[in-house]
Task: structure prediction
Amino acid sequence: MDLMQDCRAMLASSPYFIIGSGVFIRRKNVTRMHNHEKSPPSAQERLEELVENFALFDGWEERYRYLIDLGRTLPPMEEALKTDENLVRGCTSRVWMKAEIEGGILHFVADSDAHIVRGLVAVLAQVYQGVPLADIASIDIEGAFARIGLDQNLSPSRRNGFFAMLERIKFLGAA
Result:
């Protein structure tokens, strides 16, 4: 094994991963990622992990940086999908969300033209991507939003935009 292979093997089994500016975040579900017999984490488990990750940061400057770094992890959205039909109303920034339901499971792509809002999109994607429609209403993202402190530390327009995106997801879940 060469050095690069050693590093990859070490990172793959590590309970931590690096984001952005050298910040290490705890990754709880390492065994789930490498053991195909266990089920993937539930939406509620992913949400709790997000809350714990945000709690690792002392101040809001670091939390905003983490939110922006989360936004950078979003897969790119095709320009052809950035249409008025997919535009989320209620957001000051431009946010596009295109969802598909496959076998009762929610799948969506989304993007924003603003860094922090793109991070909020990433939070929603981390929690709701691949969730059965029947489970969407039971996810307490509002409570997690408050526990993270986003309800008190986001501007009113970003907060409204977050909840506009959430309403679209919940609408899809109720359909």
Summary: The chain has one domain: 3-174. Residues 3-174 form a domain with the Sufe protein. Chain: A fold (CATH 3.90.1010.10). Residues 1-36 have pLDDT under 50 and may be disordered. The two ends are 52 Å apart (CA to CA).
